[in-house]
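Give me C-alpha cells for this 61-residue protein.
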Amino acid sequence: MTTHRLTRSSNKVIAGVCGGLADYLGWDPVLVRVVYLLVSIFSAAFPGILVYIILWVVMPE
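Here you go.
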C-alpha cells in the first residue's frame, strides 16, 4: 500500500498548492487550477483566495 502525502509541488505557478493537490489526487495540474478558478469565481460561498493562502501556509514543501 502506497501512502501519499499532501505537499506543495515544484510544478508551481504561485505557491505550488494546486500542483500539490494535483499530485496527491493523480490529476493534471492544469485541470486542478481551472477547476479551482471556476469554483472560486462561480461560488459566492467559497472564499477561494483565503483558502489558497491558508493551504499555502499549512502545506509543507
